[in-house]
Structures are given as C-alpha cells and as structure tokens.
Amino acid sequence: MVRSILLELRDDFQVAAGFLTRIPAGAVDKPDIARCLRVFPAIGALIGVATGLVYLGLANAGVPLPAAGAIAFLASAMLTGALHEDGLADMADGLGGYTRERRLEIMRDSRIGTFGALALVFSAIARVTALAALPLPMAIPALAACGALGRMSPAAISRWTPQARRDGLASSAGRPELHVVVSATIAALVIAAVCLPKTWFVAAVGMAIVSALAVRWLAMRQLGGYTGDVLGCAEQVAEMALLLLFAAMAGAAA
Question: Where does the chain cross the membrane (predicted)?
C-alpha cells in the first residue's frame, strides 16, 4: 500500500514537472493529469526558489533591483515555457470577444492580440516592481510562497467549475478527485506557512483565495466554465496579487 502511494507520487511529480517546466522529467505510463494537480504547489515552490536564486545572484552582483527582477522573471518564463503567461494573454484576448463562442475561438488562437499584450506588460511591470520593493532576504521565501499558492487554485477550479469546451487539455485531463484538491491545498498552505511570517501568511492565503474566486467568476461569466488558459491566468493573477501584497506589507513595516 505504502509502496503504491509512493510510486503514484513519483509519477505525479514526473508528470507535473514535465508539464509545468521545460526540464526533461521522463515518460510515465498512463499519466494522470488530474491527479498530478496535487503536487503543482510543490513544483511551483521550486520554480519560485529558482527565480529567487537568479534574482539574488544578480542583485548581489550589483545589478539594479528592477533589472534583476526582470531578468529573473524572464528566466522563470524560460524555465516554464511561459505556460502561465500564455494563459493570461489568451484569456485577456478572449475577453475582447462579443459572444462566448467568439471568446473561446480567440483563446484557441496562438497569436497574441492587444489585450493579451497589455496584460503581459502590466503583469511584468507589477511583479518586477513589487519584487524590487521587498527586502532581499524575503525574495526567495516570497517567490516560493507565490509559486505554491498560485498553483493551488487549478485543482479547486477544475474540481468545482464546469468545462467551457468539450475538447482541449482541460477536457482530456478530467475532473480531479476531492482528495487531490485537499492535498494541493495542504501542500500550498504548509509551504507558505514555512516561508512567510505569520501576518504575511494569513494575508497571503486570503489573497490567494480571492484571486482564484475572481478569475473563476470571470471565467463563468464570460466563458461559461474553465479552460487550461483560465487555470494559467489564475496562477498569474495570484502571483501578481501576492507580490503586490507582500510589497505593501513590507513597506508598511518599514
């Protein structure tokens, strides 16, 4: 029994790492995309740590903090293949459509439009400036917490939200079981609790929940459900909101 659980976790980490990053993680027989959502927060935290290490390395080398942040987030996008940024841009573009069908059609288009470009620019500026406003010792913990909490929402959204279309990756992945949502939530909360001061932790959990609910509400209103792009957008919105929150709390404490 224990061995079976450990093997499933190993497979989930391989599938999640291969999906969320460009790192070759090896093939898995019969990958369970819905189940591997439970380890998304752990992979997200590792991505945050990697981003933070790049940022700190550049900052300690004398690179101005905004430039160091921009390079660090570029490195993060290269590590992940800009997976979540693509979701943010596609959803922003889709919201420019006048009907549900047209919005879904726009989101399927690989080209980036005006709304998508504006969303990416705004997200990049907000994250870079917020990161630069944090005390350097908090960079890695804050980014790790953002990575974990931002990737907590895909399991919950895909569990309790109808699918907007009957094809695509989200549809083929299926609906995760309740234990997957619980596991992803616990993992994200534990990681955030370890990384953040108590007051930051409480505020961050609230912000992560509000961000996920806001994106879900928008997806239901405009699309009638969720797609893979909606999940990517939810991660980006949460990461941006959390970094802005941390910057505000750090400024208030200074």
Answer: 39-58, 64-83, 112-132, 178-194, 200-219
